[in-house]
Design goal:
The structure holds three protein chains of three kinds. Chain A is about 75% helix and about 0% strand. Chain A is an all-alpha fold. The chains are: A mainly alpha, B alpha/beta, C mainly alpha. The interface between A and C is large, with 45 and 42 residues.
């Protein structure tokens, strides 16, 4: 394995260890926020797989997040199923819907695809509020969930337990994503993005891969949604408006499109920056947020990951020159 | 000894981190035809793009007595450098006549422009027939002629041509070169052209440079270059 | 049949709003190859500016024209200051800046003029015409839309600068090679889009009332109209806008379960349907890329 990748795995391992030690020093509320940031990070990772690797552009992932969240909520509240089962269930439900959405979405490119997915995001709260679905979704009021306790009587507060659970899910899913990218499937996906015509000429079944990517991407965001529902203990239609879809997208770009670790940075950004903006000025919170966005894009046009790559390049070039 | 219209000293150019031209020195004579020969990837197109401010360059470029290195493409065009690019660069969705009008975009003399359009049709009668046709529907040879005509509309002092024979049948290449000869001899148009097809170019040019991997390896009167053993074998096929 | 006709005309009158918005969107898309998500907010902000002038006692048409000029300049300035430095940034980063612009304009408008709903005057009055099928304002708005369309057509087809703009959008590199200052052409496109947006806002505000969030759904419908018409055709955008208005209204009237909220969803669903059948929109140019 080349030095760079080995270094990356070591850094990742160190980060995980540091994260695991955090609950020893951090208060419950901070853990709650970091858990949420990780949840958003997983959601953004789903978007990252779609946009960064396959070149498809989605502004509608809030829909899959909502779908995952409601799947979990309904399973727990209406059927009394243990929360741990809701994660894979939410993932699979979203995988199927994502794949199905991907089939017609294939015919659209770029800006048209963005609009179609945006429509999905806009439609979602309205569908969730609609009368036919009310018995399941609880309509405008939504559904309340109980926060689960740590299993096996472990000496952890619910917040600490959820933090560790989410951390575990992050490690598993991010690891799986990295494996996917570096493997044959990943190479096919990148080929499709860079030159669809050549890929087709080489026998890659483009339609299948594109729809599958959509499905996998939805899977990730769906699992995140389920986790989010458990962490926040509440789902309601207005939590999943198109503003959320846009926030996820912003998180993706700020973290670095196509960067797996960048997704976590994006998650932190989505969680904390709007709060910072409000801190500065309640009345102009939106304007401050916008200004922060512009400054961030100016400083890191390719996201945090791009900036890191730039710095690393500069440093390694120095060492080879000397 | 004619004047030097354009000269380059220590011209380097890069695409991002990749350097493609490594310190070129050359002079383009006023009223003459100069050719850059070289194989694929030698740096011929990059040289023209460097002269048109389309890529990052270092070094000195002097045009008509003033330093122009670092200028943007539009400014160089307005100074009188007409670049007929690789692939012709026609505005394919616009009509032939609109393409010609676009060539005159930096000029203000309405009457002069109208007269020049007429003159262009005089050189290229086929274009007059297709004046209202979409440029993208023209054949390769006609598009090449349209590209040259558009360049003419700029009333340039120097015309840069990137592989004008590319993808054209030999008879069409002859036609195009005949027109270039006319323009040079009758209008005094200075021409710098870049070619893989050495035969036609050497017949037209006065001076020739040979480029290999971003460096000039040979320079001299076109006839001499054409008679050189190595050049003959590598570029002229005999 | 009477109800149907009524709903069609009601749809046409809201459609007029969408058509005007769609026109501004297509205008900027032609210039910069991006969808400007902040278009609605720019229009809203311009409308507030004109409202402020009216509050200061300016006569309607003076405020109208002055706002158009100010918006034009604003559009040019935004392009030169905010977007020009981003030339090298990836596409998605541009989209984030559009989003940022949206947030800034929306928040600033709320801060400067607060969120209470204000009424905005119309120069055309609200007399019902043709036996109550449309109001004089709707008719006036439609006339304005058509006039702008005509002016754009003349501009692009018959003026030198219009030709230069078209060239700069179609093939920026070749445009530079003939001496066109492509950067300024883009700025000009922004200015024009901002001006058209301002007109749209000032025509729409009398109907939907002036408040910072007034353009949200209209922007969406405008996008829908522009996309249905094909993003490369101003005429298509206008027809698309009118169609979206009619479809939305008919769907609301004749399909069960469709209350006010789901109307938007239905409209968007139909748009997606159109796109799956004809991806480049009804009037759009199909770009055939040769392999």
């Amino acid at each position: 394995m080349p030095v760079r990748t080995r270094m990356q795995w070591m850094l990742a391992a160190a980060a995980v260890v540091a994260a695991a030690l955090l609950p020893l020093v951090a208060k419950n509320f901070i853990l709650f926020q970091l858990t949420l940031a990780m949840v958003y990070g997983i959601a953004i990772l789903g978007l990252c797989l779609l946009t960064g690797i396959n070149g498809q552009f989605s502004l509608g992932h809030s829909a899959f997040f909502a779908l995952g969240a409601y799947t979990a909520a309904i399973m727990m509240d209406r059927f009394g199923i243990n929360y741990l089962w809701t994660l894979p269930a939410a993932g699979i439900v979203c995988l199927v819907f994502g794949f199905l959405f991907g089939v017609p979405a294939l015919r659209l490119h770029g800006i048209y695809l963005a609009l179609a997915t945006f429509s999905l995001a806009v439609a979602t709260p309205q569908i969730l509020k609609s009368t036919p679905l009310e018995p399941w979704t609880g309509g405008v009021q939504g559904i309340v969930i109980l926060k689960p306790d740590a299993p096996f009587g472990l000496p952890l507060s619910p917040d600490q337990w959820l933090y560790y659970l989410t951390l575990l899910v992050v490690v598993v899913m991010f690891g799986a994503a990295a494996n996917l990218i570096n493997g044959r499937t990943g190479r096919a996906l990148i080929a499709i993005r860079d030159n669809p015509i050549a890929a087709r000429a080489m026998g890659v079944d483009i339609s299948l891969y594109k729809s599958l990517t959509f499905g996998v991407s939805a899977f990730y965001t769906g699992v995140a949604g389920a986790l989010g529902a458990i962490v926040i203990q509440f789902v309601a239609p207005d939590s999943f408006t198109f503003s959320f879809a846009i926030a996820l997208f912003v998180g993706l770009v700020v973290g670095g499109v196509g960067s797996i670790p960048g997704a976590l940075f994006g998650g932190l950004f989505v969680l904390f920056v709007p709060n910072i903006a409000e801190h500065f000025s309640k009345g102009l919170a939106g304007a401050i947020y916008g200004l922060i966005l512009i400054v961030v894009i100016y400083l890191m046009p390719s996201g945090a990951a791009g900036l890191v790559k730039l710095v690393v390049n500069k440093l390694t070039r120095k060492t080879t020159a000397s | 000894m004619s004047n030097v219209l354009l000269s380059a000293r220590r011209l380097c150019a890069s695409y991002g981190a990749t350097r493609v031209l490594h310190g070129l020195d050359f002079d383009i004579a006023e009223g003459g035809v100069t050719v850059f020969l070289g194989a694929n990837g030698a740096g011929k197109t990059s040289t023209l793009r460097a002269l048109s401010g389309m890529i990052d360059t270092t070094g000195e470029v002097t045009f008509a007595g003033r330093r122009v290195d670092g200028s943007v493409t539009e400014k160089l065009a307005r100074l009188g450098i007409a670049h007929v690019p690789e692939g012709r660069g026609t505005f394919s969705r616009m009509t032939v006549e609109e393409n010609l009008q676009l060539g005159a975009m930096s000029r203000n003399d309405k009457a002069g422009i109208a007269a020049d359009i007429d003159r262009a049709y005089g050189y290229f009668p086929k274009l007059r027939e297709r004046a209202t046709q979409q440029a993208g529907t023209l054949s390769g040879g006609e598009q090449q002629m349209l590209a040259v005509a558009r360049g003419l509309m700029m009333r340039p002092r120097l015309m840069l041509l990137d592989e004008p024979s590319f993808g054209l049948a030999p008879l069409i290449v002859e036609e195009v070169y005949a027109i270039l000869r006319r323009l040079n001899e009758e209008e005094g148009l200075s021409i710098l052209l870049v070619e893989q097809n050495a035969t036609a170019a050497l017949a037209l040019a006065g001076h020739a440079y040979l480029i290999e991997t971003g460096e000039i390896v040979m320079s001299g009167p076109a006839q001499d270059i054409g008679r050189d053993e190595n050049v003959r074998r590598a570029y002229l096929g005999y | 049949m009477d109800l149907f006709l009524h709903q069609v005309f009601a749809g046409l009158s809201t459609g007029g709003i969408y058509a005007l918005m769609a026109l501004a969107i297509v205008m900027i898309y032609q210039a910069i190859d991006h969808l400007n998500f902040a278009q609605g907010e720019m229009a809203m902000f311009s409308t507030f500016v004109s409202w402020q002038m009216l509050q200061w006692g300016a006569p309607y048409w003076a405020a109208f024209l002055l706002t158009i000029v100010v918006s034009f300049i604003g559009g040019v300035v935004i392009e030169r200051v905010v977007f020009k430095p981003l030339k090298a940034a990836p596409v998605l980063s541009h989209v984030v800046v559009f989003i940022a612009l949206f947030a800034i304009l929306n928040s600033a408008a709320g801060f400067l003029w607060d969120y209470t709903i204000k009424s905005y005057p119309t120069p055309f009055g609200t007399t019902p015409l043709f036996g109550g099928l449309i109001s004089s304002h709707d008719a006036g708005m439609t006339v304005v839309t058509l006039v702008i369309l005509l002016l754009l057509y003349v501009f692009f087809r018959y003026t030198r600068i219009g030709l230069a703009m078209r060239a700069a959008a179609a093939n920026p590199e070749s445009a530079r090679l003939v001496g066109i200052r492509v950067g300024w052409m883009i700025a000009l496109g922004w200015g024009m889009a901002a001006a058209i947006g301002a007109v749209a806002g000032m025509m729409i505000a009398p109907v939907v009332f002036l408040e910072p969030n007034m353009m949200l759904s209209i922007l969406l419908y405008g996008f829908a109209g522009a996309v249905v018409g094909g993003l490369t055709s101003p005429l298509g955008a206008v027809i698309g806008g009118f169609s979206v208005g009619v479809i939305e209204n008919l769907a609301g009237t004749y399909i069960p379960y469709v209350g006010r909220e789901l109307k938007l969803t239905i409209a968007l669903a139909l748009i997606v349907a159109v796109l799956t059948i004809k991806p480049s929109g009804l009037f759009g140019r199909v770009v055939v890329t040769r392999v």
